[in-house]
Write a structure and sequence with these properties.
Blueprint lengths: L3 H11 L18 H4 L12 H6 L13 H18 L5 H18 L1 H10 L1 H8 L3 H7 L1 H4 L6 E4 L6 H4 L10 E5 L16 H14 L6 E7 L5 H5 L13 H18 L4 E4 L4 H11 L5 E3 H20 L12 E4 L3 H17 L4 H6 L1 E5 L2 E2 L30 H8 L3 E4 L9 H6 L9 E4 L11 H8 L4 E4 L6 E4 L2 E3 L1 E3 L6 H11 L6 H11 L11
Parallel strand pairs: 1-3, 2-3, 2-4, 4-5, 6-7, 6-9, 9-10, 10-11, 11-14
Antiparallel strand pairs: 7-8, 12-13
Helix pairs in contact: 1-21, 1-22, 5-6, 5-8, 6-11, 11-21, 15-16, 15-22
The protein binds 1,4-dihydronicotinamide adenine dinucleotide, pyruvic acid and magnesium ion (MG).
The site of magnesium ion has 4 residues, from helix 15.
């Protein structure tokens, strides 16, 4: 499912120092019920009699030893009967029931949890990750039973350096950090956003084999501006508006310094920060700490891999990418990250012709086409703003439909967070694309925020499209024995490789070059080197 060896290899090739990150043998210092209540070490009824004696467990478990394989089979049986028993019930009920049964196992016995996750990743990824993780975050305060990861709040200012030592593991390799301010396309979910770091780190373990005892999900709770949550009596986070400006940054600074002091080599993945803080923190920390922003950089890498893959699917040479016209809908952290990396790749393919490459990209936000006439033009979007009237008379704020009709793009890529913006008219306009195999990437998450469904894309834009979505959709039956294949364009296909490659190489920093190479190697089956060098 994941082409991680390739991604990790490309990161290794870009980093200078090599060291080993293979964990050493693990000593258990606990005894008796402390072991049974510790999901890292608990084997449930699987402890053999010799271990029961050695660890003070004799009498604390039913006498029969049930092997790991039997426990595995029993869990899968329970899961399958849950599926059967909930058939026909609303999607939300079924999804949360599946998440609960997996979460209970995670709380009890991590070894078994990760085994079933790894073996059944196709079935379980949509539960522990998008789309169900979105639902879990929305309902987190009500679903909360046991804590997972760490919580640093604005009230902990001055305490973080000592708090970091409350984490029980000696070594942490991989941290996913959020402030909950832009969870998927669901907006500000405050402390409830912790579900995202948990889900992302589960993917690290399942896909990259990162040691689960060396991961740490972190929530930085600086308040929330979500009025509904502030009024919710069960809400588990700080009931105050979000910190802003220097007050906000001082909390993130303190956390980063605390992490670095205890685990200088830990990688910190910033996840689901609202745009202004996503860009600002990336610039602030990228040359001081081993960190990256997944929404800006991870998404860019995976989107570029998808875009290049589409060129290959069209039977063209990869360097023909430079000639493709691409409409990007959404000028936030994800859209701008994709645009920056894609323009860089196209410019190199066009002989370092940046202006030529830029010309081929069209950027829209909620106010339509972004041109240099835009009032309060965001500096991050400015490099991609068009000269008004430059392309077939397209004006500032032109609608998506008008842009698609006039540009006839090869690719329509959505990172707007708005479900359905690729409506019937827009999709039908893609039939006039200059490409024989146009690409439609509805990358926003979760499912209800996707710019269009897979079925609508094939129905309105035609059967010969390349379709990809951020959250999974079923393949579409096109009739006459034909299938409309659905690909998933989600940064989960990249970030585990980035983390693993960085860890194995001991790279001190994560550069754009590493991400770019990871994307390009992904699609380059027979290359010994990236395509664009
Ligand atoms: N598939 C993947 O791997 C990833 C998907 N995403 C998804 O992308 C979405 C956006 O994420 P961010 O860029 O971080 O959010 P953001 O809030 O920073 O940016 C959203 C952008 O969309 C624009 N927008 C809003 N309504 C629009 C409309 N009707 N038409 C055109 N543009 C519109 C906004 O003006 C803004 O520029 C989210 O749903 C997120 O889940 C984000 C990262 C990775
Ligand atoms: C996939 C992801 O990182 C997002 O939707 O934010
Ligand atoms: Mg994200």
């Amino acid at each position: 499912m994941w082409n991680l060896a390739r991604v990790a290899a490309s990161v290794l090739s870009r980093s200078r120092r090599f060291s080993t990150a293979i964990p050493g043998p693990c000593m258990v210092h606990k005894r008796g019920t402390d072991i049974l209540h510790d999901p890292w070490f608990n084997k449930d009824t699987g402890f053999p009699l010799t271990e029961r004696d050695r660890l003070g467990l004799r009498g604390l478990l039913p006498p029969r030893v049930i092997s790991f394989e039997q426990q595995y089979a029993r869990f899968m049986e329970s899961f399958r009967s849950l599926e059967k028993n909930t058939e026909g019930q609303p999607n939300k009920v079924v999804s949360l029931a599946k998440w609960r049964i997996l979460n209970r196992l995670h709380d009890r016995n991590e070894t078994l949890y990760y085994r079933v996750l790894i073996d059944n990743i196709k079935d379980f990824a949509p539960i522990i990750y998008t789309p169900t993780v979105g639902l879990v975050c929305q309902n987190y305060s009500g679903l909360f039973r046991r804590p997972r990861g760490m919580y640093f709040s604005a009230k902990d200012k001055g305490e973080m350096m000592s708090m970091i030592y409350n984490w029980p593991a000696q070594q942490v390799d991989m941290i996913v950090l959020t402030d909950g301010s832009r969870i998927l396309g669901l907006g500000d979910l405050g402390v409830q956003g912790i579900g995202i770091p948990i889900g992302k780190l589960d993917v690290y373990v399942a896909a990259a084999g990162i040691n689960p005892q060396r991961i740490l999900p972190v929530m930085l709770d600086v308040g929330t501006n979500n009025q509904k949550l502030l009024e919710d009596r069960l809400y588990l986070g700080l009931r105050q508006p979000r910190l802003e400006g220097e007050e906000y940054l001082s909390i993130v600074d303190e956390f980063m310094e605390a992490v670095h002091a205890r685990w200088p080599k830990a990688i910190v993945q910033f996840e689901d920060f609202q745009m202004k803080w996503a860009f600002e923190t990336l610039e602030r920390y990228r040359k001081r700490f081993c960190m990256f922003n997944d929404d800006i950089q991870g998404t860019a890498g995976v989107a570029l891999a998808g875009l290049l893959g589409t060129v290959r699917a069209q039977g063209l040479s990869l360097t023909d990418f430079a000639d493709q016209k691409i409409v990007v809908v959404g000028a936030g952290s994800a859209g701008l990250g994709v645009l920056k990396m894609a323009v860089q790749a196209a410019a190199r393919m066009a002989g370092n012709n940046d202006a030529f490459a830029r010309n081929k990209f069209f950027l829209l936000d909620k106010d339509g086409l972004i041109t240099k006439e835009r009032k309060n033009l965001d500096p991050a979007a400015a490099p991609f703003a068009k000269d008004p009237g430059d392309f077939m008379g397209l004006r500032e704020g032109a609608s998506l439909l008008e842009v698609v009709r006039k540009v006839k793009p090869h690719v329509l890529l959505g990172l707007s967070g708005v479900g359905g913006v690729f409506n019937e008219e827009v999709l039908k306009a893609m039939r006039e694309s200059d490409s024989v195999k146009p690409a439609i990437f509805a990358m926003s998450n979760p499912t209800m925020n996707a710019e269009c469904t897979a079925a609508d894309a094939f129905k309105h834009a035609g059967e010969n499209i390349v379709f990809a979505s951020g959250s999974p959709f079923e393949n579409v039956d096109l009739g006459n024995g034909k299938i409309g294949h659905v690909n998933q364009a989600n940064n989960m296909y990249l970030f585990p490789g980035i983390g693993l490659g960085t860890l194995l190489s001991g790279a001190r920093f994560i550069t754009d070059g590493m991400l770019q190479q990871a994307a390009e190697w992904y699609v380059c089956d027979n290359c010994n080197e990236p395509i664009s060098t």
